Automatic annotation (TrEMBL):
Matching Gene3D superfamilies: N-(1-d-carboxylethyl)-l-norvaline Dehydrogenase, domain 2, NAD(P)-binding Rossmann-like Domain
Gene Ontology terms for molecular function: glycerol-3-phosphate dehydrogenase (NAD+) activity; glycerol-3-phosphate dehydrogenase (NADP+) activity; NAD binding
Protein's UniProt name: Glycerol-3-phosphate dehydrogenase [NAD(P)+]
InterPro entries: 6-PGluconate_DH-like_C_sf (IPR008927), 6PGD_dom2 (IPR013328), G3P_DH_NAD-dep (IPR006168), G3P_DH_NAD-dep_C (IPR006109), G3P_DH_NAD-dep_N (IPR011128), NAD(P)-bd_dom_sf (IPR036291)
Gene designation per UniProt: gpsA
Catalytic activity entry: sn-glycerol 3-phosphate + NAD(+) = dihydroxyacetone phosphate + NADH + H(+); sn-glycerol 3-phosphate + NADP(+) = dihydroxyacetone phosphate + NADPH + H(+)
Superkingdom: Bacteria
Protein function: Catalyzes the reduction of the glycolytic intermediate dihydroxyacetone phosphate (DHAP) to sn-glycerol 3-phosphate (G3P), the key precursor for phospholipid synthesis.
Pathway(s) served: Membrane lipid metabolism; glycerophospholipid metabolism
UniProt KW keywords: Cytoplasm, Lipid biosynthesis, Lipid metabolism, NAD, NADP, Nucleotide-binding, Oxidoreductase, Phospholipid biosynthesis, Phospholipid metabolism, Signal
Compartment(s) of residence: Cytoplasm
């Protein structure tokens, strides 16, 4: 009996961690990269040193620079490309993707130029795939811990429940627990927007503002995420779940988080360009801040934390001045009513 096959596009830290989950689930995994040296390192040394330090990779994982080879016979295809290049990767994959494959993406961000969600980008490029069957994977899940098989719980969401259940079956195991959710929009928006608040949490820590400030930032940040997410069509309860509160907590409180680390360096006075060079990997929260700032205006949603972070990142505002503007806003209620895309009112 031939082994089940899966493909992961691309070979960053999260893609490599998910490839390890699939390998533990007895899949033969082709992981695609455009970097031939990286592919050689994975195949020869069983390591992906830049992204997963010294973690030893399963012999079931093979790296390739050929998209056709990566997708050949794949039952499941995981797109884990940075948001800025997701469309390009999907376009390259489209000619070789089987209509029988379950398509999953695990990228937390918006396309920078269009502000589109990743599932929308995939549906536009993978024309043979039903948009409702594109699965979103999100939740509190540092790659560094997943690859060490630390207990992790995530959520998969799709408009078509059977697609989410297929993804659940492919990924779930003894250390990687997977729930399903029908709210793909909410799961996707929550996963993307929490990176903005993580930048703010790191910045707050870098400024030495303490736990009171960070707790307030997470709480009011969640309110912003929910306001925009519900207005875009997500369900309120999704933001109280794994892709909302869960992902927000883990990303804002851990040094594993690239967004937290970037914010921390900004809080210590380092310029953004220097921070991004030091990181050496994609910091999704920076581009997501720009996208969310535009989306807030498009949907006429109040997002004061996002607005101030945008000013710090892209308009040269001093972080202390931004905090002063947040603290000096006119008094308001904590609990408010808004109408979501369905027209049904809810409170938070």
């Amino acid at each position: 009996m031939s082994a089940r096959k899966a493909a992961v596009l691309v070979a960053g830290s999260w893609g490599t961690a998910l490839a390890s989950v699939l390998a533990d689930n007895e899949f033969d995994v082709n992981i695609w990269t455009r970097n031939a040296a990286q592919a050689d390192e994975i195949n020869r040394d069983r390591r992906n040193l830049k992204y997963t330090d010294d973690a030893e990779l399963s012999p079931r994982i093979a790296a390739t620079v050929s998209m056709e080879e990566a997708l050949r016979g794949a039952e499941a295809v995981l797109f884990v490309a940075p948001s800025a290049v997701m469309r390009e990767v999907a376009r390259q994959a489209a000619p070789y993707l089987s209509p029988e494959s379950v398509v999953i993406h695990a990228t937390k961000g918006f396309e920078p130029e269009t502000m589109k969600r990743m599932s929308v980008v995939l549906a536009e490029e993978l024309t043979g795939v039903d948009p409702a069957s594109v699965v979103v994977l999100s939740g509190p899940s540092h790659a560094e811990e997943v690859i060490r098989r630390c207990p992790t719980t995530v959520v998969v969401a799709a408009g078509e429940l059977t697609a989410a259940e297929r993804a659940q079956d492919v990924l779930i195991n003894s250390y990687f627990r997977v729930y399903t959710n029908p709210d793909a929009i909410g799961v996707e928006v929550g996963g993307a927007l929490k990176n903005i608040i993580a930048l703010g949490a790191g910045l707050s820590d870098g400024l030495g503002f303490g736990d009171n400030a960070k707790a307030a930032l997470l709480t009011r940040g969640l309110a912003e995420i929910a306001r925009l997410g519900v207005t875009m069509g997500g369900h309120a309860l999704t933001f109280a779940g794994l892709s909302g509160v869960g992902d927000l907590v883990v990303t804002c409180t851990s040094r594993h988080s690239r967004n937290w680390r970037a914010g921390y360096m900004l809080g210590q006075g380092k310029p953004l360009d220097d921070v991004l060079r030091t990181m050496g990997m994609v910091v999704e929260g920076v581009k997501t801040t720009k996208a969310a700032h535009a989306l807030a205006r498009q949907y006429e949603v109040s997002m004061p934390i996002t607005d101030q972070l945008y000013e710090v990142l892209f308009a040269g505002k001093e972080p202390q001045v931004a905090v002063g503007h947040l603290m000096g806003r006119v008094r308001t209620h904590e609990i408010e009513e808004i109408a979501g895309a369905s027209g049904v009112k809810w409170t938070f």
